[in-house]
Amino acid sequence: MAQAAGNLIEVTDLVVKYGDHTVIDGMSFNVRRGETFVILGGSGSGKSTLLRNLVGLMRPYSGCIMFDGNDFTQMSDHDRLEMRKKMGMCFQGSALFGSMTVAENVAMPLLEHTKLERSTIDIMVKIKLELVGLGGFEDYMPAELSGGMRKRAGLARAMAMDPEVIFYDEPSAGLDPIVGAGLDMLILKLKQTFSLTSVVVTHELPSVELIADQVCMLDQGGVAELGTLDEVKRSSNAYVQQFFARRPSEEGDDDARYLRTLRGDVDRD
């Protein structure tokens, strides 16, 4: 399968199952190089499962994920591990190791995956921490940082290997609006400075307004709408309109969705 010019990631007819239950059903979209691609959707829409497939933590039932011109779904485990070195992951809870300093957390990917001299790694860690506004915090422990600072430290670690793409899982979750807006501005800064590709899973509509180049709206394992934020907002899809209007479901609708999630028809997000 040839990769279209300008696309870093291509997802074609992706199907993911847990046992007999289909979680993602024939999903297709492209992520262009240098853009911020936002994945939206309610609980049970398939966001978490999609993210796990995009970063190679799962193998789909069928379909294709092309990354940088290579079929990520058909690679050997060794080749997938090598390809994942081109990706950074910023976890919802930062996932910093509490027994390690901030600098040690950021250095870990470099120590594990490169043969660089320790002095070179120390310089690279310092640069990454300064990039996210944490210069001077190298020797702090994660417990000594605020929630926003831990998110930034996690982002510095995701940047350690100079990846081609960073995946964010709810980057603003648990942050107050001011700190969350600062993290959004940092995502924009990385894009503008390094032409970095970002894939962001979020529920935060103010963040989407600020950072999104393209929005992929999921519902029950499929793509409900795909396009710019303005295009998605103009969608005739009833669920998309309800989501952006923050309009409660009719009585019984939420219960029905919840029951489908419990049965495994959709992702337990």
Written account of the structure:
With 269 residues, the chain is an alpha/beta fold. 38% of the residues lie in helices and 23% in strands. It has ten helices and ten strands. The strands form two sheets. Strands 6-7-8-3-9-10 form a six-stranded mixed beta sheet. Strands 2-1-4-5 form a four-stranded antiparallel beta sheet, covered by helices on one side. Helix 4 (118-131) packs across helix 5. The longest helix has 18 residues, at 177-194. The chain is globular and about 55 Å long.
Topology record:
Blueprint: E1 7-18, E2 21-32, E3 36-40, H1 47-54, E4 62-67, E5 70-71, H2 77-84, E6 87-90, H3 102-113, H4 118-131, H5 147-158, E7 165-169, H6 177-194, E8 197-201, H7 205-211, E9 214-219, E10 222-227, H8 229-233, H9 238-245, H10 253-263
Parallel strand pairs: 3-8, 3-9, 6-7, 7-8
Antiparallel strand pairs: 1-2, 1-4, 4-5, 9-10
In short, what is this structure?
This protein has helices at 47-54, 77-84, 102-113, 118-131, 147-158, 177-194, 205-211, 229-233, 238-245, 253-263, and strands spanning 7-18, 21-32, 36-40, 62-67, 70-71, 87-90, 165-169, 197-201, 214-219, 222-227. The model has no long low-confidence stretch (mean pLDDT 89).
